[in-house]
């Protein structure tokens, strides 16, 4: 059993790609943008004012552009 766990651990270490600090930072930024997009989408679903809805939609488009630029 210990050998199986050790083999799995070693396999996981070999399978994990080494990421540069820049790649890690980019992934963090993308994840933060996705969370922001999720919050805005929730706000949009509850918004009643057309002006506020338009502002949220504009923010969503800007976030999508940022995600695309980082991906």
Model description:
With 71 residues, the protein is mainly alpha-helical. The protein is built from three helices and no strands. The protein has helices at 2-15, 21-46, 50-70. The longest helix has 26 residues, at 21-46. The N and C termini lie far apart (41 Å). The model has no long low-confidence stretch (mean pLDDT 89).
Short description:
The protein has 71 residues and is mostly helical. The protein is built from three helices and no strands.
Write a concise keyword list for the protein shown above.
71 residues, mainly alpha, 3 helices, 86% helix, 0% strand
Oligomeric organization of the protein chains: single chain
Helix-strand pattern, N to C? Answer: HHH
Q: Major β-sheet, in short?
A: none
- Spatial gap, N to C terminus: 41 Å
**Content-based structural category:** mainly alpha
- In terms of DSSP E residues, the strand content is under 5%
Query: Quick one: how many beta strands?
Result: 0
Number of helices: 3
- Note poorly predicted spans: none
Helix content: over 70%
Radius of gyration: 20 Å
Write the topology of this structure:
Blueprint (H helix, E strand, L loop, with lengths): L1 H14 L5 H26 L3 H21 L1
Helix pairs in contact: 2-3
